[in-house]
Amino acid sequence: MKLAFSTLGVPGLPLTDVLRLATAHGYHGVELRAHPEEPVHPGIGPVERADAAAEFKAAGVEVLGLAGYARVAAPGEDGPVLDDVRALVDLARDLGAPFVRVFPGGGDEQGPEEADATAARRLGVAAEYAADRGVRVLLETHDSHRTGAAASRVVGPVGHRNVGILWDVMHTWLGGEQPAASYAALSPYLGYVQVKDIAGPDDTTPLPLGDGVLPLGECVEVLSREGWDGWLCWEYEARWYEGAAPLPGLLEAGRDHLARLLNESA
Fold first, then answer.
1. Could you write out the three-class secondary structure of 40-63?
2. Range with the poorest average pLDDT among 42-51, 91-100, 108-117, 177-186
């Protein structure tokens, strides 16, 4: 498996510095938070896109994916949601990124079946657009669809290879789903895996990998046992927690922890 980290852990950091961290600490890729607060987002122009792609290539680091904020199960008209997804897909194509992350975002005013149908409809439309651009749209296990079972209810009916699922191990755990059950539900659709650690269900402040309660060892073990060889991406949510320790000082130990889990599960 290859290792990456998300720029959610280093909010606003210039791309040159992000790539320096990746190369210095042995990460193969970076997941870019695609938000206007960051240097790379759908609002940047062709020159900035080309420059960013060139920086990644020069550093020998891969753009794992773009973490966008489109909410495909949200109530309302399809048009604005699909516009957001298409903008992310276009940026991913320009950067050479294989994946785009979207959220479910189903609202309380919908029942589960309506939210599922809304998300599946929009992802079905997005799939054709993404396929033409060599990009795969991934629904993250998050908010209204935080378990593997819930996310697969949406993606399964879409039935398109350019739509899949991003496994956020915190959310499936918070949803009461064991890693083996999550993998069983997600495996036909799995794009990559976001790892992290927290103190507990009532305190999701990010911690160094291995210092919290999330079953990272079990997750890596089931992935290894099943022969999965994709990406593990450390999503350290520093942007949302001012008291979190700075990520740069944790990256080397985090890589070592993941490498140890991979060795133990081999």
1. CCCCCCHHHHHHHHHHHHHHCCEE
2. 108-117
Q: How many Å apart are CA 68 and CA 99, to the nearest integer?
A: 10
What are the tokens at 103? 């959220």
Cα 93 from chain centre: 17
SS3 32: strand
**35, 239 in Cβ contact below 8 A?**
no
Give the pTM: 0.97
Alpha helices (H) along the chain: 15-25, 46-59, 78-95, 112-131, 148-158, 169-174, 179-186, 216-225, 251-265
In the numeric block, which tokens belong to residue 146? 């935080």
The CA distance from 151 to 168, in Å, is 11
Place of tokens 């320009």: 94
Does an H or E element contain 233, and which?
strand 231-234
pLDDT digits (tens, 9 = 90+) for 105-147: 998 888 999 999 999 999 999 999 999 999 999 999 999 999 9
